[in-house]
């Protein structure tokens, strides 16, 4: 099996509202898959189900061939499946260094049972700070960070478990052009150097076309199209009646 | 730098040194008793800060763990005839068990629901302690209710000096231990949970397990303060479970600075010594505590030590592009 992540026939309803209607989706190793769709299509709900935040009603999720459908979110992180949030979450009273330390400490259970020495942990914190461009802000409290730095902190947290796959939920929204460019470069380097796969949820077809190997579009909780990013333009007119803007 | 581990330990040692010498200034027995109670209350408030401040789980029934320990000491020594040391060990075990139960239930709850659960459990224990007289020995005075149950102490009535120095030693050791816990790996993870449970879960934190652990540690320390109180006062009363005692912990922590340990401990000690030492009636003391809380929060929104810590941290923030 080549799929790193395979979600099969995922269904989720809230009362009479069916949010996900049997979605099947896969992400290969070192692959960047884009998830595109109008507001309310179920993109974030799918990310919530895949990351373990919300259990599906039906269907199953395989990660590296293992069934993780009932695994908690923290256990999936330790297994190498990380995620970021549409609205960056942070610990307001912790500094950037401390926030990264939490993820490294809790993610270390996934490092083949190997526990780091304190010196090794601090070296790893420093490495993550450098990679994510947060070294200058390392003693800043998260509550004082800009939107761009919060996004970087999300990345820093996500890569702390040495993930195999990161789910990125609207990671480029509300960013300046400079921040967007820097995050794109970071994403590319993580893929190139660490072989991390990504499921990139975005409203922006240009970013998906630039970053992804494959794009999946969903509408009304169903997969409606799947293909190469270059062909996304062929899909877009179909959905022209929907709001694809952020 | 203030709030560094070394400076905190140094300040603790200095404060304890001063308090060691204080009785030599000619304090009478009443003031020695007030201060000994204050030391135990301060340690109890510090234990609240572990779960309510560091871990951010607002516990409004913290007296449950304190009262469990005092009542265990009383019942096991007076009713079962256990030696005090064995009763104290069992009391610690029971208060920690109570904390484990509360922590397990709280694991899947959030914010106000934890506050409500702990409030309900604490008040339930208070009502049971207030109403029960079924442990009364035959043909003797009634036990229970407001009057409480006596603790059979091997030393009879302890000397005020022994109580003072014993309670001071306990406060020093427990505060030092609690500051170490707050700075440990667990303390860091608990602070993260306090900041954002969702982000903590997405960072690999088993939130329910860590909440339970925070309750366990807090319950053990509150129980230890309860054992000390039972040894000092020689009686367990329904007030040991009271809502007032639970709310005092939260109030002192808010005044001192939630999550700083030393702030709540100092706030409890100073305000208790000041108001009780001045002989102010309990009802008036509650009003004065509320007034102190309002005044402090006006000028120190995160409590005294909490606001100072924030200012120190802001000063330590390195401007973008600058090197340290």
Please identify the structural class of chain B as seen in this structure: mainly alpha
Q: Identify the most extensive interface between protein chains.
A: A-B, 39 and 29 residues
Q: How many helices of chain A?
A: 8
**Number of structural units classed as domains of chain B:** 1
Encode the helix/strand succession of chain B as letters.
HHHHHEHHHHEHHHH
How many beta-strand runs of chain B?
A: 2
The CATH class label of the domain at 3-89 and 162-239 in chain A is Alpha Beta
Overall CATH architecture of chain B:
Orthogonal Bundle
The span between the termini of chain A is 36 Å
Helical amount of chain B = over 70%
Average pLDDT number of chain A: 89
Shape of chain B: globular
Strand order of the largest sheet of chain A: 6-7-8-3-9-10
Describe this structure in words.
The complex is a heterodimer of chains A (246) and B (324). Chain A is built from eight helices and ten strands. Chain A has a domain at 3-89 and 162-239: Rossmann fold (3-Layer(aba) Sandwich). In chain A, the strands form two sheets. In chain A, strands 6-7-8-3-9-10 form a six-stranded mixed beta sheet, sandwiched between helices. A four-stranded antiparallel beta sheet of chain A has the order 2-1-4-5, with helices on one face. Residues 239-246 of chain A have low confidence and may be disordered. Chain A has 246 residues and is α/β, with parallel strands linked by helices. With 324 residues, chain B is an all-alpha fold. Chain B has a single domain (5-315), classed as ABC transporter involved in vitamin B12 uptake, BtuC, CATH 1.10.3470. Chain B contains 13 helices and two strands; from the N terminus they run αααααβααααβαααα. Chain B has helices spanning 5-21, 29-54, 63-79, 84-106, 111-131, 160-183, 185-195, 197-202, 207-233, 243-256, 262-277, 282-299, 304-316; strands at 149-150, 235-236. In chain B, strands 1-2 form a two-stranded antiparallel sheet. Chains A and B meet through helix 2 and helix 3 of A and helix 7, helix 8 and helix 13 of B.
């Amino acid at each position: 099996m080549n799929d790193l992540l395979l979600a099969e026939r995922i269904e989720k309803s809230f009362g009479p509202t069916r949010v996900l209607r049997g979605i099947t989706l896969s992400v290969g190793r070192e692959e960047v898959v884009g998830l595109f769709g109008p507001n309310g299509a179920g993109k974030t709900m799918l990310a919530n189900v895949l990351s373990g935040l919300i259990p599906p009603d039906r269907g199953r999720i395989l990660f590296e061939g293992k069934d993780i459908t009932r695994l908690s979110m923290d256990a999936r992180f330790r297994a190498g499946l990380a995620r970021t949030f549409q609205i960056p979450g942070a610990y307001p009273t912790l500094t950037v260094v401390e926030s990264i330390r939490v993820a490294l400490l809790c993610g270390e259970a996934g490092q083949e049972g190997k526990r780091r020495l304190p010196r090794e942990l601090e070296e790893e914190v420093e490495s993550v700070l450098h990679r994510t461009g947060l070294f200058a802000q390392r003693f800043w409290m998260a509550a004082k960070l800009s939107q761009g730095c919060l996004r970087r902190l999300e990345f820093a947290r996500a890569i702390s478990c040495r993930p195999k796959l990161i789910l990125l939920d609207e990671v480029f929204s509300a960013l300046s052009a400079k921040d967007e460019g820097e995050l794109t470069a970071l994403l590319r380097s993580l893929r190139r150097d660490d072989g991390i796969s990504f499921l990139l949820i975005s409203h922006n077809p240009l970013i998906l076309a630039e970053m992804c190997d494959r794009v999946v579009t969903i509408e009304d909780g169903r997969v409606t199209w799947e293909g190469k990013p270059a062909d996304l333009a062929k899909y877009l007119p179909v959905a022209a009646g929907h709001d694809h803007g952020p | 730098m203030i709030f560094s581990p070394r400076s905190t330990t140094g300040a603790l040692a200095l404060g304890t040194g001063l308090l060691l010498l204080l009785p030599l200034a000619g304090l009478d027995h009443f003031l020695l008793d007030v201060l000994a109670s204050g030391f135990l209350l301060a340690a109890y408030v510090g234990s609240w800060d572990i779960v309510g401040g560091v871990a951010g789980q607002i516990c409004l029934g913290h007296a449950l763990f304190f009262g469990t320990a005092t009542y265990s000491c009383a019942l096991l020594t007076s009713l079962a005839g256990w030696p005090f040391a064995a009763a104290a060990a069992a009391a610690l075990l029971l208060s920690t068990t109570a904390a484990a139960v509360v922590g397990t239930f709280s694991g899947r709850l959030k914010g106000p629901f934890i506050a409500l659960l702990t409030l309900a459990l604490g008040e339930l224990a208070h009502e049971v302690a207030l109403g029960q007289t079924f442990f009364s020995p035959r043909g003797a005075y009634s036990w229970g209710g407001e009057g409480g149950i006596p603790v059979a102490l091997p030393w009879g009535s302890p000397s005020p000096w022994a109580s003072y120095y014993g309670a001071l030693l306990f406060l020093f050791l427990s505060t030092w231990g609690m500051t170490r816990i707050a700075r440990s790996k667990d303390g860091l993870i608990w602070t993260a949970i306090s900041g954002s449970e969702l982000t903590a879960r997405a960072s690999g934190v088993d939130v329910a397990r860590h909440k339970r652990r925070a309750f366990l540690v807090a319950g053990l320390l509150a129980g230890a303060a309860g054992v000390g109180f039972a040894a000092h006062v020689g009686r367990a009363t329904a007030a040991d479970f009271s809502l007032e005692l639970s709310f005092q912990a939260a109030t002192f922590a808010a005044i001192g600075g939630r999550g700083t340990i030393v702030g709540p401990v100092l706030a409890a000690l100073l305000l208790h010594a000041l108001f009780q030492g001045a002989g102010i009636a309990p009802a008036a003391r509650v009003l004065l505590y509320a007034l102190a809380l309002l005044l402090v929060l006006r000028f120190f929104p995160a409590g005294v030590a909490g606001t100072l810590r924030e200012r120190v941290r802001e000063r330590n923030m390195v401007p973008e592009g600058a090197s340290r």
